[in-house]
């Protein structure tokens, strides 16, 4: 299968390329001619190792030129890429177990790893029952011809679940359609520059800020996440030249806390076209404090582009492409029930009034494009009109065909070419407003944390059997929440569990703990009816329930 996403490997623009952040504060540059040549030599080495079109190759590499060359080398060899995160906050054993779970499902013909990560990769391969050793990236003497590709461009594994990873199958058609959607709604022009610190294993960093600009041979300034954490002003300084970026809401708030105006002295940010915000529910306060920091340097609030997307729809679903200040609303929490109208208590465009608007507020994520239809449905799958809360359902060419190797999720489902997202939302003033996950996961710092993993840990800490515990991801306006239902009258274990959850999901996730008997409702196949249980509790219909925290 041919793909425009690989065309640059045959026709590189030698005048442009990638600027990679160096640890000393400078930048290293390689042009697209040099990168294409290295990728095709890497493809030659992969082919020598037996990689063939349609095979899966897993990469465990830090963000560097070797990663870029190996990624496109896999594509040049016609294979499917599966990028796996380097270890971040997990200890060694947890990380190896997480990688092994991915490898068992992906069944790669080759696992490539950097020298410093080869030990982790080898241990994970052994746990997964894969023979051989990790492959250290290398280049053949001659450039290989770009090979025909199989159906899948990449496997995008959801992060955060060590027990049950799910690899989204992203076809070449999915990826091309979504890359075109991103470029069109962002207003990406030929000579525009993209700057990003997002990790490449995450869909927003990989597809939005890496593959899309490279496929168009746009100039790219690429940092590692640790570069951003240590010096967020370095990222902002990129926009004296760059026009486009993307980041989760917490990153904008982090910049406002850490960056001092004197660090930006003499900077002109008036050319900054787009600062996409996504991956988590968006609170207006985070955006406003960032805007007030940068406004004296020419930044405009109209550069903010709130967006909604997920790996199961390749990436982008909606983005506010209008040149306007983002719209924030505060819904009445008592009205947030599926299939019922949402009462809006307050609304305003982003500005000084947004300071302090955190929990309870959400920001509009734009109007759907014709080629990515979005609808809201109730629990019975019936389409809901504007203003009514329900589940977000996405169609169009970006909707992926499913999870790899028959894996399933409890909230996100693939039905007749549409993705039932498991996210709660509603339309207001023509825009999509997203409350967040309702069911089997929540987003924490852009990472999916699955409730099955939390249930196992809670069972261990509390001493209760796993069958007596159900955790539900609870959407709320401008905040994330978890509800824990425990079949017991004893609550002595609650403080220890609360502390464990605080460490796992952070301070900004609201946790509700409920004890009692007869609380847990299950389907005929034995699966917990998570959303149904939460709705019953909220409506006061759960007899015997006692909220203890």
From TrEMBL:
The protein's name in its UniProt record: AMP-binding protein
Residues covered by the AMP-dependent synthetase/ligase domain: 27-404
Entry-linked SUPFAM superfamilies: Acetyl-CoA synthetase-like (SSF56801)
Gene Ontology terms describing biological process: fatty acid biosynthetic process
GO cellular component, one term: plasma membrane
Organism the protein comes from: Actinomadura physcomitrii
Family classification: Belongs to the ATP-dependent AMP-binding enzyme family.
Any Pfam family: AMP-binding
């Amino acid at each position: 299968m041919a793909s425009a996403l690989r065309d640059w490997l045959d026709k590189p623009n030698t005048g442009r390329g990638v600027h990679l952040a160096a640890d000393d504060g400078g930048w290293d540059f390689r042009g697209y001619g040099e990168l294409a040549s290295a990728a095709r030599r890497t493809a030659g080495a992969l082919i020598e190792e037996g990689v063939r079109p349609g095979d899966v190759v897993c990469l465990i590499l830090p963000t560097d030129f070797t990663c870029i060359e190996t990624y496109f080398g896999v594509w040049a060899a016609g294979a499917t890429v599966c990028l796996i995160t380097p270890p971040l906050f997990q200890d060694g054993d947890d990380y190896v177990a997480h990688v092994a779970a991915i490898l068992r499902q992906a069944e790669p013909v080759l696992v490539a790893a950097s020298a410093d990560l080869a030990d982790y990769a080898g241990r994970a391969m052994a746990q997964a029952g894969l023979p051989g050793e990790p492959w250290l990236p290398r280049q053949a003497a001659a450039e290989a011809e770009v090979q025909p590709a199989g159906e899948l461009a990449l496997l995008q594994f959801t992060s955060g679940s060590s027990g049950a990873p799910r690899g989204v199958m992203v076809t070449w058609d999915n990826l091309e359609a979504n890359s075109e959607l991103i470029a069109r709604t962002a207003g990406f022009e030929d000579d525009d520059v993209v700057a990003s610190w997002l990790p490449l294993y995450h869909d927003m960093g990989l597809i939005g800020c890496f593959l899309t600009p490279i496929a168009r041979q746009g100039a790219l300034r690429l940092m590692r996440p640790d570069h951003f954490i240590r010096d967020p002003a370095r990222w902002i300084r990129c926009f004296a030249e760059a026009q486009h970026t993307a980041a989760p809401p917490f990153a904008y708030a982090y910049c406002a806390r850490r960056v001092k105006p004197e660090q930006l002295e003499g900077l002109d940010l008036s050319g900054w076209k787009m600062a996409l915000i996504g991956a988590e529910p968006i609170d207006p306060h985070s955006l406003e404090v960032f805007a007030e920091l940068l406004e004296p340097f020419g930044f405009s609030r109209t550069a903010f582009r709130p967006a909604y997307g997920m790996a199961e729809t390749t990436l982008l679903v909606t983005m506010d492409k209008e040149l306007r200040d983002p719209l924030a609303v505060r819904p009445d929490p008592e009205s947030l029930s599926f299939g019922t109208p949402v009462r809006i208590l307050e609304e305003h465009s982003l500005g000084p009034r947004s300071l302090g608007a955190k929990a309870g507020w959400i920001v509009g994520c734009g109007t759907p494009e014709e080629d990515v239809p979005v609808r809201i449905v109730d629990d019975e799958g019936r389409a809901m009109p504007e203003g009514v809360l329900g589940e977000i359902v996405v169609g169009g060419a970006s909707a992926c065909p499913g999870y790899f190797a028959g894996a399933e999720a409890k909230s996100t489902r693939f039905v007749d070419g549409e993705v039932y997202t498991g996210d709660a939302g509603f339309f207001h003033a023509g825009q999509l407003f997203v409350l967040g996950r309702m069911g089997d996961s929540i987003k924490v710092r852009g990472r999916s944390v699955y409730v099955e993993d939390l249930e196992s840990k809670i069972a261990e800490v509390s001493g209760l059997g796993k069958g007596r515990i159900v955790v539900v991801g609870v959407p709320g306006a401008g905040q994330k929440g978890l509800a824990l239902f425990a079949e017991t009258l004893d609550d002595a274990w609650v403080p220890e569990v609360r502390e464990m959850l605080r460490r796992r999901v952070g301070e900004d996730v609201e946790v509700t703990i409920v004890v009692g008997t007869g609380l847990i409702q299950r389907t005929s196949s034995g699966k917990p009816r998570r959303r149904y249980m939460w709705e019953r509790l909220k409506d006061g219909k759960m007899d015997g329930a006692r909220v203890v925290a």
